[in-house]
Amino acid sequence: MNSIFDDKRVLVTGACGTVGSELVRQLLEDYRVGELIGLDNNESEIFFLEQKYSKHHNAYFFLGDVRDRDKLTRKMKGIDVVFHTAAFKHVILCERSPFEAVQTNILGVQNVIYAACENDVGSVIFTSSDKAVNPTNVMGTSKLMGERLMTAANSNHRGKGPIFASTRFGNVLGSRGSVIPIFREQIRRGGPVTLTDPDMTRFIMSIKEAVKLVIDSLSLARGGEVFVTKMPVIRIKDLAAVMIRELAPGYGHRPEHIPTEVIGYKPGEKLYEELMSQEETRRSWELERYFVVIPAFTSLYRNIDYEYKGTEPKPVHKPYNSCNEKPLSQMQITHFLHKNRLLEDVPNDHPAERYWPDERHDERNVETFAKANR
Question: Hey, which CATH number is domain 9-372, 3.30.230.10, 3.40.50.720, 3.30.420.40, 3.50.30.10?
Answer without folding.
Answer: 3.40.50.720
